[in-house]
Design goal:
two-stranded antiparallel sheet
């Protein structure tokens, strides 16, 4: 594995852990944790996040402040379907801050309204 690829994977793992810990603390739910890789049937990077009693898929992206919104939303939707979840969101790392509460959440309006209402209609 190249040094750049290894550094990229380490940055991604760090970011996933940071976001999982933040969500678990803020939502007072110690079941929320970083999910292990699952290959073709990936179900997101964060496990056990729920809203309205239904799962929400979280895909974490640490690309040094660059955003690839279209492909990321496509990936989050595929993982939402794999997990049979209510919604799928992307948490993207912002440049110049490591604070979890300052990171960016990207989602479609369909996922946003699903989170607000509890339905995907």
């Amino acid at each position: 594995v190249s040094r750049a690829l290894k550094a990229s994977k380490e940055a991604g793992a760090w970011f996933e852990g940071l976001i999982a810990k933040y969500l678990a603390e803020r939502l007072n739910d110690d079941r929320i944790e970083r999910r292990r890789l699952q290959g073709a049937n990936d179900r997101g990077d964060i496990a056990s996040l729920r809203v309205h009693g239904q799962r929400v898929v979280v895909e974490c992206k640490e690309y040094g402040g660059r955003y690839e919104i279209g492909p990321w939303l496509t990936e989050a939707e595929r993982e939402r379907i794999n997990d049979q979840a209510l919604a799928g969101v992307v948490v993207a790392k912002r440049r110049s801050t490591r604070r979890p509460e300052e990171q960016v959440v990207i989602m479609t309006m369909q996922d946003f309204t699903a989170i607000l209402t509890g339905t995907r209609e």
